[in-house]
Amino acid sequence: MTIAHNLGFPRIGERRELKKATEAYWKGDADYASLAATGAELRRSNWEKQKKAGIELIPSNDFSFYDQMLDQSCLVGNVPERFAWNGNNATIDVAFDMARGTREAIACEMTKWFDTNYHYLVPEFTRQTAFKLAGRKIFDEFEEAKAQGIITKPVMVGPATYLSLGKVTDDSGLDKFALADQLIPVYVEIAEKLAAAGAKWLQLDEPIFALDLNDAQREVIKKAYDALAGVKGIKIMVAHYFGELRDNIELFTSLPVAGLHIDAVRGVKEVETVATRLGGETVLSVGVVDGRNIWKTNLERAIGPLNMVRSKLGSDRLMVGPSCSLLHVPVTLRSETKLDDEFLNWLAFAEEKLDEIVFLAQAVDGNVDQAVLSTNQRAMVDRANSARIHDESVKKRVAAVTEDDYKRHSAYTERAQKQRGKLNLPAFPITTIGSFPQTAEVRKARADHKRGDLSDAGYNAFVEQQIVDAVKMQEKMGFDMLVHGEFERNDMVEYFGELLAGYAFTKFGWVQSYGSRYVKPPIIFGDVSRPEPMTVRWSKYAQSLTDKPMKGMLTGPVTMVEWAFVRDDQPRSETVKQVALAIRDEVVDLEAAGLAAIQIDEAAFREGLPLRQADWKAYLEWATASFRLTAGGVADETQVHTHMCYSEFNDIIEAIADMDADCISIETSRSQMELLDAFVKFNYPNEIGPGVYDIHSPRVPATQEMVDLLRKATQVLPPERIWVNPDCGLKTRGWAEVEQALIHMVDAARELRAAKAICVG
Predict the structure, then answer these.
(1) Do 460 and 541 touch, CB atoms closer than 8 A?
(2) How far apart are CA 618 and CA 426, in angstroms?
(3) Does 167 reside within a domain?
(4) Pfam family of this protein, just one (predicted)?
(5) pLDDT for the residue 760
(6) The domain that contains 683 carries what CATH number?
(7) Neighbours of 208 (CB within 10 A)
(8) 380 phi/psi in degrees, rounded to 5
(9) Which of 244, 294, 473, 518 could be 267's S-S partner, Cβ–Cβ 3.0 to 4.6 Å?
């Protein structure tokens, strides 16, 4: 019979129990036993939910207190030397040190997991890197489930993906793929131990099959799975997801493993080819339920490819699952009592997707629940025809956009002269990326207001006082371009989405972004427009408090779409253009309100880049155009900033320049200014704010540390085009650390100014 299985389940809990437990542990308010108990209860609950739904092959080790790539580094003993690991069991505290940094050690670099908004900790490799089995998590969690009466399928990141996503951090000239000969035996040892423990299947995630692979990567894949094929007593499943296989299809289907998983949402056109190529007794897992989005599966449509695979392979060689781990969707719809029935009927979160998987596995064997199928088809028709989705005025406005709408009035060099004359800023101007700490007091006031326990007048007065305090603090510290602090905003996407037409919001639809940082992505279900100004009131008030320039803060159209669950009934480029026009209206209104600078964050610009280079050109054309559309309505004197975090820029630097922002700020502190290389080689002409303060770590960098980073920047960039700022917004940090770090940052800028004055003198 066809098997219903899952690749991974959300680890955070229905009420963000993991976040609360983890942060309590970090603060010292809870001990390890309490943290471990929360983790154990979440795992127990997740396994029970999947078993109850009818999932026959349930994953384990998909749970993590922080990140699965970080867990893999600990499992194979790859802990950077600076964390002073004793070489024994790589415990959760070792993992937390790597993720968050210590007083003595900078945290490991963090970047986006393929084209998702999930972040992973980047493995570090040096000439001294050595691998060994150094963790027990994967074995302990298998035994936990077994004690619960469930023989799970342990999951871990595959060796080729692990090496591909890591980076060499010394100057030894090391070929990281040469480490495969050390790493693969550890994977074999892990598989052998799992087999001895009674595991029947081991899932190795290799999403790099969605990328353009080089010869070294292909060789690692062959070596790894030839070696793992020799492990007795356990079946290996290689899971590919996030895209099509394309030229990797021959390598993938030739792997000597018991099972292969394909993404049949993004790669539906390849299902028949893959099934036809499979020989022997290899099982094919077909991921027809979308693990990346929250729309119901069209069950009738999904049965088609499954029936085709069954006709070729038989039901005994067919598994049905999600396209990828369900990590990327919220836990359950059960608690979403504020969404109306029509809208709820269009959605499926992780728990509901389990039911879809089980239905499809049964249906392909001929056991079709006609009532479920009929209800599903009615939901498909209702959504397609709903009047709430379509707005003719938005469609007409998009159609009326002209080439001139995508351009500033003058070229950057002319704009820059006008802006410098207006702003009159010193060398190394100091600013921040936008947000200040969202304290418990701020969050409580927002929650009270939302519940109706705090009046509009009371809430507005509270926010205004927060802005007053933030402006005074920045002036006292010596900032040159101020921000209002974003105290009114719950999230950089959610806040705007709540004020735009075409967006809907859940109450408990949280997903993990990194560590204990969770986001509640909005749902773009229809045509997008801006009914009224969204930020003008707060930015205008902040500007009234100071003679220094105030920077208006907005989220860009690509990020607004990438960090949402986006409608799947029209091209993503069309949705982005609609959002761009809405943001353009806000930019124009901010300028009219007296703001001299406006920052349009495009943190997800690189994240939206297709995984295959052949697909980049089309994306970069409409993505850069959408940014220019947001900024094209203001005068030359108005300075337009953008911010991007955790992006590799070398291969898209021309597109970054095509955005034509007057100033771009980027993350550079963890990478020690490495990301500036792209801007230097390209001779990027505009102004740059290389981040000197890593806000994703609680450590407070010393002034000298920031001075050293800025000096690195001055060695490759003209000093007159360098801004001084943190890596990202400060909302997740506490005031005590932030104030000290910002004081150090200002002192660092002043030291660079003094040195420049001496040189000029």
Answers:
(1) no
(2) 40
(3) no
(4) Meth_synt_1
(5) 41
(6) 3.20.20.210
(7) 23
(8) -60, -45
(9) 244
d(CA 521, CA 739): 30
* Annotated binding residue 434: yes
In the chain, the N- to C-terminal Cα span, in Å, equals: 83
pLDDT at 673: 65
Domain encompassing residue 642: 392-402+410-760
**pTM (2 decimals)?**
0.89
Give φ, ψ of 66 to 5 degrees. Answer: -145, -60
Describe the chain by its helix, strand, coil percentages, rounded to 5.
45, 15, 40
435 is in an annotated binding site: yes
111-120 per-residue burial string, b: 16 or more CB within 10 A, e: under 16: bbbbbbbbbb
**117 known member of a binding site:** yes
Q: Is 261 in the active site? A: no
In a domain, 311, yes or no: no
Instruction: Tell me which residue has tokens 């502190």.
Output: 669
Asked whether residue 340 is marked as a ligand-binding residue, the answer is no
Query: d(Cα 272, Cα 383) in Å, to the nearest integer?
Result: 29
Q: Is 23 annotated as a binding residue?
A: no
Beta bridge partners of 519: 511
Which pair of structure tokens corresponds to residue 601? 């964050």
Joined together, the tokens standing for residue 171 give 């100057």
Distance CA 639, CA 420 (A): 9
**What per-residue confidence (pLDDT) applies to 107?**
94
3-state secondary structure 359-380: HHHHHHCCCCCHHHHHHHHHHH
Q: 676: Cβ–Cβ under 8 A, 6 or more apart, which residues?
A: 668, 688, 690, 712, 713, 716, 717
How high is the pLDDT of residue 44? 98
Which of 328, 449, 696, 744 is the catalytic position?
A: 696
Residue type, 689: G
The number of folded domains in the chain is 1
Does a structural domain hold residue 593? Answer: yes
Phi, psi of 306, deg, nearest 5 = -65, -40
**Do strands 201-205 and 153-157 pair parallel, antiparallel, or not at all (unpaired)?**
parallel
Do the bridges between strand 551-555 and strand 511-514 make them parallel or antiparallel, or are there none, so unpaired? unpaired
**Other Cβ atoms within 10 Å of 585 Cβ, number:** 16
In the predicted model, residues of the chain with pLDDT beneath 70 are 646-648, 670-675, 757-761
Strand-pairing partners, residue 737, are none
Instruction: Tell me, yes or no, whether 369 lies in a domain.
Output: no
Residue 661: partners with Cβ closer than 8 Å, 6 or more residues away: 600, 627, 631, 640, 641, 642, 686
Dist CA 565 CA 576 (whole Å): 13
